[in-house]
């Protein structure tokens, strides 16, 4: 197998010098972080006033975890560690709950991120000859611009098309002979289901590789997509709080994702106790970013469940491999790439007059795309048989949900007492999408 590197020295560095590099960067990050009120207080409580208080990598354990709530409570600039004029970009999570989590980057931070993404792209075997159609949405979401700059740095020809408009996507793929795409797994499946409509078969395309991420999918889905299109599919993992895509990516061996340990300290913990777990054991992924001036974050609880591989990868990279994301420790749903908590849906539904107390959230696939259906019971006084009133109510619920979670749901109105009643803990979410 042909193995290419973007930065061979760093990607194949021995573990000991890698740990030294991590320690040096961690100290630097602590010096940077104490410039923020938030970390000055939090690290101070742990007896850390600056980088010099970090003697060993294990001293990281003295630093408390950082959570999404910490970021929200310090919205918008509480964790900003540089002067505002040094910031050149902001991004925010695709999550839609109340206060967004915002990330800031300096020019140097962007440069570091771009470099990590460039590594990922080269690891999949892409070269300057590739034509890269980036079908992730551009904007606050990191999937668009993140991969864009990395691909340009490697020298691929980038088509910054963004998400949606399937017919145009297919036409552009044909016109420009696209060889690589960055896309969510559901959208790549959806495109396949519509090819016939555009009188196209996968053979009419020039596609060789797809980078798939932003939402969970199984090994079976990967295999299916590889067979349907006759391509190689590589898993791509990241989260806005850690810059976005480029945190972990598969190499040509496609045996799970190298996580760039010179840029992130990786821990897997028991989500209930917070205790670190050894390689090979499944737990919550916790990340510390080592290369971001504008916004250091220590021991971030990703809520994603995964494990680290014990054995090295045949590609020669020494950075450990992270498994697929095997689930979440919270109830966050990812619907068409958008992060949604059931509590947000509840808040909207319960805010609509005439809606009763019972509802259900159903998720399934329609033409390979995620479909969200909300079933709500209404009060009997609403059941007058006047369909126009019911339709108007449906419309109101739909509009409010769309405004809150940015997803267009199907809304079904049900008679009072017709939805399941829960005596114990309610189980209102039924997710019929493929399980891992
Ligand atoms: O989804 C960044 C990204 C963009 C990653 C493009 C890959 C490709 P957020 O919107 O902050 O950022 O959502 C992060 O998405 O904590 C995971 O739960 C989930 N996620 C991301 N990649 C994968 C993946 C981007 N490959 C959240 N497999 C994360 C499973 C993924 N889940």
Describe the structure.
- This protein has 436 residues and is of the alpha/beta class.
- The chain folds into two domains: 1-329, Rossmann fold, CATH 3.40.50; 333-435, GMP Synthetase, Chain A, domain 3 (2-Layer Sandwich), CATH 3.30.300.
- The chain contains eleven helices and 20 strands.
- The chain has helices spanning 8-11, 15-33, 37-45, 68-73, 107-123, 142-154, 166-175, 185-194, 219-229, 342-350, 387-405, and strands spanning 87-92, 102-106, 131-134, 157-159, 180-183, 209-213, 232-239, 244-250, 257-259, 264-269, 283-289, 300-306, 321-322, 327-328, 333-335, 338-340, 355-366, 369-378, 410-414, 429-431.
- The strands form five sheets. It has an eight-stranded mixed sheet with strand order 4-3-5-6-7-8-9-13, sandwiched between helices. The protein has a four-stranded antiparallel sheet with strand order 10-11-12-14. Strands 19-18-17-20 form a four-stranded mixed sheet.
- Strand 3, helix 6 (142-154) and strand 4 form a beta-alpha-beta unit.
- Helix 5 (107-123) packs across helix 6, helix 8 (185-194) runs parallel beside helix 9 and helix 10 crosses helix 11 (387-405).
- The longest helix has 19 residues, at 15-33.
- It is globular.
- The chain starts with 7 loop residues before the first helix and ends in a 5-residue tail after the last strand.
